[in-house]
Amino acid sequence: MRNNVGLRFKIKRVLERLVHKWQVVGVVAGIGLLLCSLSGIAWSSPTATPLRTHRIMSTPDNVIWGELFKPDSRPIARVRSGDRIIMQTVSHEGILPDQGDTAAFFNQGGIPQNTKSKVTQNKILPDQLKVKSAVKKTGPGPHVITGPIYVEGAQPGDTLEIKTLAIDYRVPYGVISNRHSRGALPGEYPLNNAPIYSRVIPLDIKREIGIFQPENNLPPIQLPLDPFMGIMGVVPADREEAVNSVPPGNYGGNIDIKLLGRGSSLYLPVQVPGALFYAGDPHCAQANGEVALTAIECSLTPTFELVLHKNMKLNAPMGETKDAWIAVGLDEDLNEAMKKSVREYLDIANSKYGITKQDALLIGSAAIDFEVSQVVDIVKGIHGVVPKELFRDVKPK
Predict the structure, then answer these.
(1) What pTM was computed for the model?
(2) Biggest CA pair distance of the chain
(3) What share of the chain is helix, strand, coil (3-state, %, to 5)?
(4) What is the CATH T-level fold of the domain 53-309, as seen in this structure?
(5) Which of the residues 264, 299, 329, 355 could staple to 349 if both were Cys, CB 3.0 to 4.6 A apart?
(6) What is the pLDDT of residues 69-100, one digit of tens each?
(7) How many angstroms separate the CA atoms of 27 and 24, rounded?
(8) What's the CATH architecture for 323-397?
(9) Would you list the domain boundaries of the chain?
(10) CA dihedral sign, ordered 157, 373, 177, 212
(11) Nearest CA to 308 among 38, 18, 42?
């Protein structure tokens, strides 16, 4: 009997401590909720349904080829702000008409079809073959694009943040191409008026290295990989802007900025209800300029987190990494793209750090690098890299 009393007493003391602990937590949470409501910061209730992770496959029903999605395109998934998306994407290189038979193209590059083998290493990605056989190419662009994803509550005037949390390789190969007298030297390359010059690039995924074998039997060159999605976008309100997957715009699309890889964010002004997010044009590596025409194009599986900002107004895309803001300028005229990028940098310096725009212009001349994103996508790109460290002593607004 005495032992039972002692046990009941111990249980009572434990319960009292737990109650006290949760009361304290409740008070702290209440204070936090009050402070956040006063400061305008959204705070999720602890009883709210947990955010979800959605897996999006690159099946023929989930992709289009050559164009962007339209305002009336059927969403393949609906998500809430904060949800995560694991999205399969498919590279267009190797399945385009000018590259002939896909199996023969890759076989010549050392990648066998070998579809019956259980070994996935060095095998043509089945989804590439399915896209070529089952998806109609409906636009003039080359890209295979996965989507669209409807974001609950997104309306024109809002901003959608696309966080790239992770990127996984789907196959250990990629392709670089120069074609149709395009690229930075149209009319000069490919040599001898050849319609296309492509190379299959084997990938050492563990070391994140692409192996480029020169055509004249020189030793192979190791190209460092740094994967990112060339296309991330929302649906443009103007259907005419969606007829070709190549040119980027205020809706994002084929921006081709190599800094927007793992750990980055891309901010886009929402154009239509639901935003209708999509992604494609997966790259294993690209240098600024993308002068041949393509990067190392390779199929990837990125993990995104989509965050809706209701009180953030943007007129053009903006990027962010851990260390820098990315001021994006897009225009068919490279000079105009430069002007737009500089203006966006001035907006960033002013809105985030309180620097006057004329002071920001002087600072930019001394400390901000403006780089050519690409010159091969009809609409050319300039991006300014704005180091956060530069403004470390300026209190953010």
Answers:
(1) 0.85
(2) 101
(3) 25, 30, 45
(4) Jelly Rolls (2.60.120)
(5) 355
(6) 999 999 999 999 999 999 999 999 999 999 99
(7) 5
(8) Roll (3.10)
(9) 1-48, 53-309, 323-397
(10) negative
(11) 42
